[in-house]
Amino acid sequence: MRTDTPKTILLKDYQPPKYKVADVHLDIRIFAGKTLVTATTRFTKNHDGAEPLVLNGERLKLVSVAINGAATTNYTVDDKTLTIPHPGNEFTTVIETEICPEENTALEGLYMSGGNYCTQCEAEGFRTITYFPDRPDVMTIFTTRVEGDKKTCPVLLSNGNLIEDGDCGDGRHYAIWHDPFPKPCYLFALVAGDLVHIRDSFTTMSGRIVDLRIYVRAGDENQCDWAMESLKRSMEWDEKTYGREYQLDRFNIVAVSDFNMGAMENTSLNIFNTALVLARPETATDMDFERVEGVIAHEYFHNWTGNRVTCRDWFQLSLKEGLTVFRDQEFTADMNSRGVKRIDDVVRLRNMQFPEDAGPMAHPIRPDNYIEINNFYTLTVYEKGAEVIRMQHTLLGDDKYRKATDLYFDRYDGMAVTCDDFLQCMQDSSGVDLSQFKLWYSQAGTPEVTAEGHYDAAAKTYHLTLSQTVPPTPGQPDKKPMHIPVMVGLVGPNGHDLDVTPPPSVIPAKAGIHTNQTMDSGLRRNDEKGVSYLLELKDSKQTFTFKNVAVKPVPSILRGFSAPVKLHTNLSDDDYRFLMVHDSDGFNRWESGQILALRMMGRMIDTVESGGAAVTDPAFIDSYGLMLDQANASNADRALMARALSLPDLAIIAQQRKIVDPDTIFTVRRRVLHDLAARYRDQIQAIYDSCNTPTTYSNDAESAGRRALKNVCLRLLMNGPNPPVSLARQQYESANNMTDRVAALSVLAETDGADRDAVFADFFKRFEQYPLVIDKWFSLQASAPIPSTLDRIATLKDHPAFSLLNPNRVRSLFAAFAMNNPVCFHAKDGRGYDILTNAIIALNTKNPQIAARLLGPLREWRRYTPDRQAKMKAALERILAQENLSPDVFEIVSKTLK
Ligand code: B3K
Ligand code: ZN
């Protein structure tokens, strides 16, 4: 048990820095076993009094301090800071420190991965490299000299442009990098090691040529082309969509195997997890390809949203992350299928962010307190943050939104600003009043919206009453009503959207949400023949009246998921069956099918819980048949149909329950899959066959859609009577790409028998040299919802290929198990909890960030059946009782138990 309580940092305590930095010169000399850092920093006073200079520094060996050229001992130092009493108005410090990257297992600051040196400074890693004001509102110009051994470190990289390199004798060499644009130290980066690179170039809109390079370990260079193409597409998209041009001569990406998250946007030297760079069809799935493209774009987009305009303090994290996620989502939508991307993003939000927003760690997208900032790189700050930007885009429309972002970049380039500053630009340039909208930044919790429609045949009017509540969350018992954009369409009996007279107050004069829309006196027509209206819900209850509605419509509400809320309606199952087929909004067509499935499974779970036997509703089975017909049509959007034919995930079904029993949920979902597969076996097989065209591999969207649909069919068949194990085995053997191979492997993972063992043994042998593929091998086994998984994990964690020091491997085993496999994780005897708890305890001192991440699945302990609750609580208490508990783990466990 920790005897102290780590300090809580509060937003309201923010104070501007006492000293600013004019520039800094770093001299970093790398030797095996020790690295010497000399920081020469020019400070200027930024206050009126005579305050001391307080620098952050942790895990550093201080060698010497000099001020204005003279060595001094006039300072105090503790384990977190170095303090120099009022040094003057302008002065230069030279501070020498020694660090040991070889021993750094937390993977924060300067550390080693696969024999190479690399850095991760966001959020507060720079303070483990040298003493410095480690806060994002201190922006300065960095010049970095890196020196290392020529043999072990032939490549020496840092931010900015290369201005000099050369030999220093003794088998050593150096490189000097200069970044002329001021940045906070969290964007500092250094890489030194033995790497190869691929190279390309991009000509910017003003005609400058940028040298693009991707550095990887030797042997991986043939897996980088997709990342390079994605980078060029991102650069072009940002010029076209946001008018943003890249400013430096070089843009480097370095891929490393040991990385706590996906990637990092250090100015001109992005450092990536190999998982988000390397992609070839034989080793990466279609989903991996899309993720690589999306994350390359995300980090590149940070160049403007994050780097050139950065955050004043870490409470403002969503300023850069929410905005950059929205940008990367839109990029992916433009590069691929907009409708499918929206579905995938909403599924992710619901699966992972909604529970966070309903649990003990719920926080607004701009939190107001934290113990460890690394714990706030959350689904809420990122994904909900992106939804909040998306709503602003919806409220302003394309043109005004673009003008507002132009103003934002113009006003704040080179500065560290707040979420309020961003909102102010949105308001100033558009004239749209966002004062109430601001609540999205400060109120946590997912709003619940209820919609009730009523048609008055005599008056030919349609009344839609929308009401909202925002649930209490920790520290926020009472909430105010939010400003919620609700996109609505009225679908007539012939399946076409009605073109009616909308309520006068409803629609901002010139708005537009979808890119391919034309405006007609406030109506939005999307490219699929639809007519939508934007209702702005601002009160706790409001009625919107449409006139000249000739026939009784079915309302299609929250089209495109226009706000991150939970929607309840009084629509009948028949209404949803109608929308599932006719809605002009692709998202709501998909959504209607999901709602039907959820409603039915909810009823089945009720039945089981009251001792009855669950039966799949014949009406649901019939409507599923309609979707199969659509999927079988020659012009089907197969990627979309793959989503439509998939039942809601276990996590989403669980959210509908007051008390969660994972076994019942799993059994009911299985039952439905079984009955669907039994009834439609031949149709499903036919779709499988028609998608299984054995041509040469292509990664275009149409081919990827075919693979997605085919693999949904395979999974359905495997859940039916007489599962076609040999078909799965054959698909595994004959696959010419990882998507098909892994899909077959994942269904076989859920069987017990010789075929399963054979394919897993083969897969390991075949891909032993590809760590990212071996991650799949671990995670598929850990995710299999079969009883033998629990024993298997015990063996896997002692497998020679497993290591607690590699975050990808840890995630592939423990996170896959605890997050993707609720049935085994929540095994009644508590073994699942023990497995996770032991891993967290082992990681707590080695890598606190990863340990804290693994706590996610335990956070919702209060929602489970009483026996499970008790065991989960005991697991959390066992963690809390550990000595040397890191602030990361302490914060989550203590808040979760509160
Ligand atoms: N900004 C980084 C995340 C840093 C996480 C620090 N614990 C990656 C990104 O969002 O692009
Ligand atoms: Zn980001």
UniProtKB/TrEMBL annotation:
<dbReference type="InterPro" id="IPR027268">
    <property type="entry name" value="Peptidase_M4/M1_CTD_sf"/>
</dbReference>
<keyword id="KW-0031">Aminopeptidase</keyword>
<dbReference type="InterPro" id="IPR035414">
    <property type="entry name" value="Peptidase_M1_pepN_Ig-like"/>
</dbReference>
<dbReference type="Pfam" id="PF11940">
    <property type="entry name" value="DUF3458"/>
</dbReference>
<comment type="similarity">
    <text>Belongs to the peptidase M1 family.</text>
</comment>
<dbReference type="InterPro" id="IPR012779">
    <property type="entry name" value="Peptidase_M1_pepN"/>
</dbReference>
<dbReference type="Pfam" id="PF01433">
    <property type="entry name" value="Peptidase_M1"/>
</dbReference>
<feature type="domain" description="Aminopeptidase N-like N-terminal">
    <location>
        <begin position="17"/>
        <end position="187"/>
    </location>
</feature>
<dbReference type="InterPro" id="IPR014782">
    <property type="entry name" value="Peptidase_M1_dom"/>
</dbReference>
<dbReference type="Pfam" id="PF17432">
    <property type="entry name" value="DUF3458_C"/>
</dbReference>
<keyword id="KW-0378">Hydrolase</keyword>
<dbReference type="GO" id="GO:0006508">
    <property type="term" value="P:proteolysis"/>
</dbReference>
<keyword id="KW-0482">Metalloprotease</keyword>
<keyword id="KW-0645">Protease</keyword>
<keyword id="KW-0862">Zinc</keyword>
<dbReference type="GO" id="GO:0008270">
    <property type="term" value="F:zinc ion binding"/>
</dbReference>
<dbReference type="InterPro" id="IPR045357">
    <property type="entry name" value="Aminopeptidase_N-like_N"/>
</dbReference>
<dbReference type="InterPro" id="IPR024601">
    <property type="entry name" value="Peptidase_M1_pepN_C"/>
</dbReference>
<feature type="domain" description="Peptidase M1 alanyl aminopeptidase Ig-like fold">
    <location>
        <begin position="445"/>
        <end position="569"/>
    </location>
</feature>
<dbReference type="GO" id="GO:0016285">
    <property type="term" value="F:alanyl aminopeptidase activity"/>
</dbReference>
<keyword id="KW-0479">Metal-binding</keyword>
<dbReference type="InterPro" id="IPR038438">
    <property type="entry name" value="PepN_Ig-like_sf"/>
</dbReference>
<protein>
    <recommendedName>
        <fullName>Aminopeptidase N</fullName>
        <ecNumber>3.4.11.2</ecNumber>
    </recommendedName>
</protein>
<dbReference type="InterPro" id="IPR042097">
    <property type="entry name" value="Aminopeptidase_N-like_N_sf"/>
</dbReference>
<feature type="domain" description="Peptidase M1 alanyl aminopeptidase C-terminal">
    <location>
        <begin position="573"/>
        <end position="898"/>
    </location>
</feature>
<dbReference type="InterPro" id="IPR001930">
    <property type="entry name" value="Peptidase_M1"/>
</dbReference>
<feature type="domain" description="Peptidase M1 membrane alanine aminopeptidase">
    <location>
        <begin position="226"/>
        <end position="437"/>
    </location>
</feature>
<dbReference type="Pfam" id="PF17900">
    <property type="entry name" value="Peptidase_M1_N"/>
</dbReference>
<comment type="function">
    <text>Aminopeptidase N is involved in the degradation of intracellular peptides generated by protein breakdown during normal growth as well as in response to nutrient starvation.</text>
</comment>
<dbReference type="InterPro" id="IPR037144">
    <property type="entry name" value="Peptidase_M1_pepN_C_sf"/>
</dbReference>
<dbReference type="GO" id="GO:0008237">
    <property type="term" value="F:metallopeptidase activity"/>
</dbReference>
